[in-house]
Design brief:
Radius of gyration: 17 Å
Oligomer: single chain
Number of strands: 2
Order of helices and strands: HHHHHEEHHHHHH
Helix content: 55-70%
Length: 209
């Protein structure tokens, strides 16, 4: 099969199987791992198209144009895989001109994602609404505390705002009012659960943005 045929043969993965995976970057690196396993070079176009075809509910343009990929989201996701704020979290090396290669961390994360996709039993039938933030109820609180944003703060007591914009899938200092509203609602749930880490993280972000 040609590279194009391999990529065109990719079938979308059911949303419920990856709904609990914490970041777009982990999904992208899984697509990169799939391409590498099938002998497809990791150039920018192949990687973006494969990522969209595997995970269209995460990487479509929006609710109106779900049949088209979001160029901005895919570009941002690949960039975050190559240039994370913490070098230990680098999943890919390379650039648009030369192409990419998986790091050891990237391979490990991709294999973990594969296991999660195969092993998830909890079904989540509601697909995400692209570029719209959900209300801060218990589901959003649980999603928040599973995110890299929360886990890094829990481990270090600090957070790069990069992870905030990535979590809300927006550009730096965009949609600030919506983000603040979401965080305050998440904080309400955190207070009910006595989650001091979450409360402190929300307060840290609110002071910073």
């Amino acid at each position: 099969m040609t590279y194009k045929e391999i990529i065109n043969s990719i079938q979308p993965i059911e949303y419920s199987k990856y709904a609990n995976i914490s970041s777009n970057e982990k999904l992208c690196v899984y697509a990169a791992y799939y391409l590498e396993k099938n002998g497809v070079p990791l150039n920018f176009n192949y990687l973006c198209i494969a990522t969209y075809k595997m995970f269209p509910d995460k990487f479509c343009a929006d609710e109106e144009f779900k049949e088209f990929p979001s160029v901005d989201r895919l570009n941002r996701t690949v960039l975050h895989c190559v240039r994370p704020s913490n070098e230990k979290n680098r999943f890919l090396i390379g650039d648009v001109r030369l192409g990419y290669a998986l790091t050891k961390m990237g391979i490990a994360v991709a294999e973990q994602v594969g296991n999660e996709i195969k092993g998830l039993h909890e079904k989540i039938d509601t697909k995400p609404v692209i570029d719209k933030h959900k209300k801060g109820h218990i589901t959003d609180y649980l999603k928040f505390i599973k995110s890299d944003l929360y886990k890094i703060y829990q481990a270090t007591g600090e957070i790069d705002l990069f992870y905030v914009w990535d979590y809300y899938e927006t550009f730096p200092y965009s949609d600030v009012d919506k983000i603040k509203k979401s965080l305050k609602e998440i904080s309400i749930v955190a207070k009910e659960k006595n989650d001091t880490t979450c409360i402190e993280l929300v307060e840290y972000i609110l002071r910073s943005i």
